[in-house]
Structure formats: structure tokens, C-alpha cells
Specification:
About 65% of the residues lie in helices and about 5% in strands. It has about 625 residues and is mostly helical. Strands 2-1-3-5-4-6 form a 6-stranded mixed beta sheet. Helix 2 runs antiparallel to helix 6 and helix 12 runs antiparallel to helix 13. The longest helix has about 35 residues. The chain starts with a helix and ends with a strand. The relative contact order is 0.09.
């Protein structure tokens, strides 16, 4: 006990800078350890994101690949354009892929530092409590698991915190010059978030609304208008630049107009049609909203409920920020920010799937229990809930028990009565792991692959049981036990999800492409003389083949007569090339895991090159 007290005493004497350095590099090292085990991208989103960045860095060959693959989904260039700057130094796509994951780790490792700044400086928590809230927030499963994908959402996890910090700085400063500078920087980050992902629209709207609330609370709104104008002008100017870049991408990379390019706001507006409103259609939308609400409660271990309870209690103060004390105002600003961002994000998510819900075009169960889009802001209510817990039991009242029961019960009933059965009635009834990050381990081992009704019962039981346990620990003022419990749940959930889904899939996809990957990385000198790779009827995803052979001219065709001599041919095992071509040999890939495609060498000169390099070739005529 004395050792523990001495350790705490030494911690209290550490400077904030020293604490931040220790916190950052500890988080960074722990984030980088799983990256070392990643081998290949998993989602088509990852390949497309990397392709856009490489294209913007003069990797023109990716354009032909996307055209041939029929890929017309835009994923945002804002992040990939920077991570793929490495293309100027190396054309090894695996290196660029791993560097992207390292960049993700570097970014999200700043989140605990921002939390520590907000908790200690603005919310006036003691140093020990502020550090505890920061560390536990940094352990949130989405920050550990979803950042192991090379997609463009990782910067959003950090941007929501940086924008909140800037808004709090605007509230604190009395200098109009600083307010204008911070507002312009906030606008720049908001429009950048939109170039990263379309959900950046939620941040643009949230930043504008919260900025109006802050400036109006400071009084003399007429004098604060320049700060608001700085935000709006930067956003408008940034959007004009973004629109020009997007036109270039749409025309040169995808060969389409912006209105024809999926995953763009212009496409959504151009093709939006209000579907017929029927009781069944409205019920499906509400059920989907209920599934999202249930997920937010489950994934945040009930902390989202604590935030909502205090938010409801402070509803009057939130509309009278100017009358609140100086110490209370930052907390109210944070509540407004979380509330608006949550509502706008959930609203945009439901709106984007409105056509699917209303027109019965939902193809799989993931859309009924959709959490990944919520993960962008879910760390915020987790932090707010932790701050409330660390302040002690006086923050809550006994009457709040009924509110916890109601807010847990309503989405739970929807999950058991409608959302769960709806998922089970579909042909593709799996629950996508990426849509249920953090919650998946508590729904049973088969929840993601072959869910049964019992998996939904397990999720509801876990959520309700944890809410009751958290509430009991709060009223008994067992803050240490509660923090250890939340840390253990976060670690278990992160390790389970990463090992069972992310790492396993990454390794399997590498095994399926191991020979192509080896050929693309080790035989680059052949590419100068024999640059062509023809893909015929391949079962391996086309973007994965292009990823393995990034330096090569990959040509997709179904016409065998187009295949030229001295080239590589990739095809499925049902394609018999031995009858079509005289000088063609099948390569022994040495990869038992890949049973879906064969690799052939066509042309006497190239066959000789392969034999000299030690490859085992077969002459197959049948």
C-alpha cells in the first residue's frame, strides 16, 4: 500500500509535458505492435483508398485497374493523398500499406493527450483523474482495431477531438484575433475532414452550430461575427478547391462525372427520390435506428447512458450558457458538441441508407445493427461518462436508476423484438464485425458468421448486466474497481476482435496472393523487359492482384487472343491454356492455400528466365 501511495506521489510531481510524452509513446508502441503482424489489406475499401492516393501521386496505372475492375466508388482522397507520398520513394505497395497503418497509429496516439488537456485544463479534474480518463478513452476498442485498416476513417477519430479542443480554446480566449485564428483553423480541419470522408459533413455542420453557440454566449454577438465569417469563408474556399480535385479524380481516375460517382454527395443528391412511405418502411427505419442506439449503449459499456442522463438534467443550463459559471461553461460546450455531432452523424447515416430501408434493398444484416459510422464520435461520450464517474457519486441521483432502465430497455426490446428477427430472416444474415466493433465478443463466438437468436439475447443480457454493474459501482463510489473493469473490457474486446477477424483475414489474404506478391516484389527487373500480366477469369479480387503487382501493367481480359507472348497469365483453374498456347507453362506457386487461381508463364524467353531463377514449371496440355 505504501508503495502504491509513493508511486502516486511521484506521479503528482510529474509535469504535464512529461506525462504527455510518456502517455503518447506508450500508446504509440502498443498501437504499432499489431501493425507488425499485418500482411495484406482486407477490405476492397482499402485497395480503393490506396489506389486514389497513388493516382494523385502520379501512379497512373491504377486508373486502368479501377476501370477494368468496374470500380466506381469514391472513398475520399484527403488522407490517402498524404500517406501515398511514399510512392515517390518506393513503389512497393506493401510498404505503403504498412506505412499507412503506422500513420494511423501516430494519429490516434494523440487522442489521450487531447483528452488529458480537456480534462485537466477545461474540466478542472485533478491530475490523476485527468490522466485516468485520458488513458481509458485511448483504450476504446475502435481506436485499437479499426485503425488497423488502411481506410480513410482513422483521421476522423482524431479530428473530432482536435476540433473540440479548438472550440474550447475559442470559448476561453477573449481576444477577437485569436478567436478568428482558431475559427479559421477549425474551418480548415472541418473541410479537410470532408475530403477524407463524406461524413465530414457532420463535422462541418457541428462546428458551425457549436461556434454560433459559443460566440453568442460570450455576448456582443455583433463583435464576434468576424470569427464566424472566418470559419465560413475557409469552409467555402476549401470546398471550392475540393470540388476541383474531385472533378479531376472523377474524370481521369474513374472516367465518370461526379454525379455518376458513388459515395459522393453530388451523386446522392442527383439520384435521390423520396420513396413511398408505408408503415412497414417506416418501421424498418425505426428498427435500424434502434439497432444503432443499442450498439452505442453496448459498445460504450453503458457510458453513453450516463452522458445522456446528465445531459437531460442540464438541459436548462445548456440553453443558458452565458449565465453559467466560468467553470461550468466548458463542460456545457462539450455536451453541445457531442450531442450535435451524434445526432447529425446518426441522421446522415440513416439518410444515406434511406433508399435501402424504404425500398427493401437491404442485402445483409449489417445495415440493421450498424455501428462503424457511430464509432467516429462514440469515444466522446465515453470520455464524458468517465469524467462524470471520476467526479464521484454526487454527480448522479437515485432517481437516475429509472432513466438507465428505460434507456437500456427501449433499444433492447427493439433489438429482441424486431431488429434481431429481421437479420435472421435475411439470406445473408451475418453480422459484419466491422459494424459491431467492441460489442462482437459479447454476442457469442458465432455472432459474426452464423448468428442465432441466442446471440442477440447474449448481447442484450451483457448490455443490461453491465449497465446494472456500472450503476452499482457508481453509487458505492468504487471508482478504482470500475476503471479496472472498463480497462479489462476494452483490452479483451480489442484483442479478441483483432485476433479473430483482422489479423486472421489479413494473413489469409496474403496466403492467397503469396506467389504474386513474391513475384511482384522480387522479380521487378523482369518488369522492364516483360511488363505485362494478363488476368483471365480470376477468382482473386482484381484490386488484390493489382496490389501484389503494383509495378506491372495488369490487363484484365476475357479474350485469350489478346494475350501476347512473354507475359504472365493469371486465371482460375477451370481455364485450360495448355490447348490454346504452345509455349506456356504452369508455375508451381508453392502455395497450398491458394486453390482458386493458377499462374502461367507464356513465351520461350520468359520460360527460360523463370527456369534460370529456380521456379518449377509444368507442361500441361490438358
Amino acid at each position: 500500500m505504501r508503495l502504491f501511495q509513493n508511486t502516486i506521489g511521484r506521479f503528482e510531481k510529474l509535469s504535464d509535458r512529461c506525462i504527455c510524452v510518456i502517455m503518447y509513446f506508450t500508446q504509440l508502441v502498443l498501437q504499432l505492435i499489431p501493425v507488425a503482424f499485418m500482411k495484406y489489406p482486407i477490405l476492397s475499401d482499402e485497395y480503393a483508398t490506396l489506389a486514389e492516393g497513388v493516382f494523385l501521386n502520379n501512379g497512373k496505372n491504377w486508373a486502368l485497374t479501377l476501370h477494368a475492375a468496374g470500380f466506381d466508388r469514391y472513398y475520399g482522397y484527403g488522407y490517402a493523398a498524404f500517406t501515398c507520398l511514399a510512392y515517390h520513394f518506393t513503389q512497393d505497395m506493401r510498404v505503403i500499406y504498412l506505412l499507412t497503418l503506422c500513420c494511423n497509429a501516430v494519429l490516434v496516439s494523440f487522442i489521450p493527450l487531447i483528452c488529458y488537456r480537456i480534462a485537466g485544463h477545461f474540466l478542472l479534474l485533478p491530475k490523476k483523474e485527468a490522466c485516468t480518463a485520458a488513458v481509458l478513452t485511448g483504450m476504446y476498442p475502435a481506436y485499437w482495431v479499426l485503425t488497423k485498416y488502411a481506410i480513410n476513417e482513422s483521421p476522423l477519430y482524431l479530428l473530432v477531438w482536435v476540433i473540440l479542443l479548438l472550440l474550447l480554446e475559442i470559448r476561453e480566449t477573449g481576444s477577437l484575433r485569436k478567436q478568428c485564428a482558431y475559427s479559421a483553423l477549425t474551418g480548415l480541419l472541418c473541410i479537410y475532414s470532408y475530403t477524407v470522408h463524406g461524413r465530414g459533413l457532420a463535422l462541418i455542420a457541428t462546428g458551425a452550430l457549436v461556434l454560433v453557440i459559443i460566440l453568442s454566449a460570450k455576448g456582443h454577438m455583433a463583435k464576434r461575427v468576424p470569427a464566424l465569417l472566418c470559419y465560413l469563408l475557409v469552409v467555402l474556399a476549401g470546398y471550392a478547391v475540393h470540388d476541383g480535385i474531385l472533378h479531376h479524380l472523377a474524370a481521369d481516375l474513374f472516367g465518370k462525372k461526379i454525379t455518376e460517382l458513388y459515395n459522393t454527395f453530388a451523386n446522392y443528391v442527383a439520384n435521390f427520390e423520396l420513396p413511398p412511405v408505408t408503415p412497414g418502411a417506416v418501421g424498418r427505419v425505426f428498427a435500424a435506428a434502434g439497432g444503432m442506439c443499442f450498439y452505442m449503449v453496448c459498445a460504450t459499456y453503458g457510458l453513453f447512458l450516463l452522458f445522456l442522463i446528465v445531459l437531460f438534467r442540464k438541459r436548462r443550463e445548456m440553453f443558458r450558457i452565458a449565465r453559467a459559471s466560468e467553470e461550468e461553461q466548458p463542460e456545457l460546450v462539450m455536451y453541445w458538441y457531442i450531442l450535435i455531432l451524434s445526432v447529425v452523424t446518426v441522421g446522415l447515416t440513416l439518410l444515406s441508407f434511406l433508399l435501402m430501408y424504404m425500398k427493401d434493398r437491404v442485402y445483409s444484416g449489417e445495415f440493421w445493427f450498424y455501428g462503424r459510422y457511430c464509432e467516429v464520435f462514440c469515444g466522446l461520450p465515453v470520455f464524458a461518462g468517465l469524467v462524470l464517474l471520476l467526479r464521484g457519486k454526487d454527480t448522479f441521483r437515485k432517481g437516475d436508476t429509472a432513466a438507465v432502465a428505460v434507456m437500456t430497455g427501449i433499444p433492447s426490446v427493439l433489438m429482441l423484438a424486431y431488429t434481431g428477427p429481421k437479420i435472421l430472416s435475411m439470406k445473408r444474415k451475418y453480422i459484419s464485425y466491422s459494424m459491431t466493433t467492441g460489442a462482437m465478443p459479447f454476442g457469442g463466438f458465432q455472432a459474426g458468421e452464423d448468428p442465432a437468436y441466442g446471440n442477440f439475447i447474449a448481447l442484450v443480457a451483457f448490455t443490461a448486466g453491465l449497465a446494472i454493474l456500472v450503476w452499482a459501482l457508481v453509487f458505492r463510489n468504487k471508482k478504482k474497481i470500475l476503471c479496472v473493469l472498463l480497462a479489462a473490457l476494452s483490452v479483451y474486446s480489442s484483442l479478441y476482435s483483432w485476433n479473430r477477424f483482422v489479423y486472421r483475414a489479413s494473413s489469409e489474404y496474403y496466403e492467397y496472393s503469396a506467389f504474386l506478391d513474391r513475384y511482384g516484389r522480387e522479380e521487378k527487373e523482369l518488369g522492364a523487359e516483360y511488363p505485362r500480366v494478363y488476368v483471365l477469369n480470376s477468382k482473386t479480387p482484381r484490386l488484390r492482384i493489382k496490389f501484389a503487382l503494383a509495378d506491372w501493367d495488369v490487363i484484365y481480359t476475357t479474350d485469350r487472343s489478346e494475350v501476347r507472348e512473354n507475359s504472365i497469365v493469371v486465371c482460375d483453374r477451370q481455364t485450360d491454356l495448355g490447348k490454346k498456347f504452345r509455349y506456356i507453362r504452369k508455375v508451381n506457386t508453392g502455395n497450398a492455400g491458394n486453390e482458386q487461381d493458377y499462374v502461367w508463364v507464356y513465351g520461350r524467353e520468359l520460360i527460360g528466365q523463370f527456369k534460370n531463377r529456380g521456379y518449377e514449371l509444368y507442361n500441361v496440355k490438358k
